[in-house]
Amino acid sequence: MDEMTRVRELRADAPTPDRGRLAPGRMRLVEAARTGERRRAVWARREFVIAGVVAAVTAVAVTASVLADGGDQGRKASPAVSPNLNLKGLSARELLERAATVLETQPPVTVPKAKQWIYTKSMSEGQDPKLLKEMGEEAFVQESWIRYDGSASAHLLPGRGSKLQITKMHLENGGEGDDRSPREMYRFLSTLPTDGEGALKTLREKNAIADGKESQAAADRTEIFVLLSADVMPPKGLAGLYRALATLPGGKVTDHLVKNAAGRRVIALHYGGDGIGSDGQDWLLDPQTFQVVGQRLYAPKGGADGGKGGVAGGNSLITRAVVDKAGRRG
After folding, report:
1. pTM of the full predicted structure?
2. What is the 3-state secondary structure (H, E, C) of the chain?
C-alpha cells in the first residue's frame, strides 16, 4: 500500500462531532490527509473532521518569512521585540492587550495578487509512530498552496515520491458553501476595528457562526478562533481579534515558554474544552511578534476509549511565502 492511500484511509470511519465543540481546531491537515484533494480557507460554520480526536490543526502566522509591506514577497523582517517578557502571573487579558499593542506597530502586509499562491510548510504532532514509520518519515510535515483568489489549492503530502496534487475550487461569493478565499478573509479582517468592543460588535454583525445552542460568549470565541486561521493576516486585524478575545471569559497563560512541534520556544495561551471532544487547546504565539505560530489540541481524559488525555494533535508553522506558481517555495 502506498503512503498516499494509507494516509487517506487513516481513521476514515471516525465520526464528525458537532462544530460548536470542535471549531477551535481548524482541521486542514487532517482534511488533506483524508482526501488528498483540498486545502480550503475557512470562514464560518466549518464542519471539522477529526480522527478520534487525533487532530492536526493549522497555525497561521509567518515564521521564517513574513508578508511585510514594501516590496519583496516573503522578505524577512525584523520582529518587534518585547523586552523583559515575564509570563508568571500574566493574565490572558494582559497578554492579549500587550500582543495587540505590538501588532499595531507593525507595517501592513503586502497583499498578494489574485493569481498568486500562498505557500505553507508546517509540522504536526500527535501522529501515529507506526504510520510515520510506514511512510519512511520521522515527522509529519505538510506542504500546501492555495491561490489568493480561492480558485485552486495544491498539496504535497509526506512520504517519499509524493507528487503535487492540484485541485480546482471556487471559494469566493459562497461558491462552495461557507468557505471563503484568502482574499475574502483578508478584506474582512482589514475592516476590523482594533478596539475590543468595536471588533466584537463587527464580528456579531457579520453573524458568521452565531448559530446552534452556544452562549453568545462561546459563539464569539468560536468565530475568533476560526478567523485566527486566515492565510493572510493584517496586523491591525489580528490586534482587533486579540482585543475582542480579551473581552471574553476564559484563557490561561502558561507561566513559561514551551516548545512547539517545530522546536521553537513559544507562548502557550490555553482555552478549555468540553471534556468530550477535546480537553481544550493552546494557541501558540511568538514571544517577540505575538503572531500565532501554532496550535495544540488536548484529548479528554477517560471516556469510552479510556483515553489518558495529553496532546492529541497540533500543528506548527515552519514557513510561509507568496509565490507565483503551485509547487514553488519562494
Report:
1. 0.73
2. CCHHHHHHCCCCCCCCCCHHHHCCCCCHHHHHHHHCCCCCCCCCCCCCCCECCECCCCCCCCCCCCCECCCCCCCCCCCCCCCCCCCCCCCHHHHHHHHHHHHCCCCCECCCCCCCEEEEEEEEECCCHHHHHHHCCCCEEEEEEEECCCCEEEEECCCCCCCCEEEECCCHHHCCCCCCCHHHHHHHHHCCCCCHHHHHHHHHHHCCCCCCCCCHHHHHHHHHHHHCCCCCCCHHHHHHHHHHHHCCCCCEECCCCEECCCCCEEEEEEECCCCCCCCCEEEEECCCCCCEEEEEEECCEECCCCEECCEEEEEEEEEEEEECCCCCCC
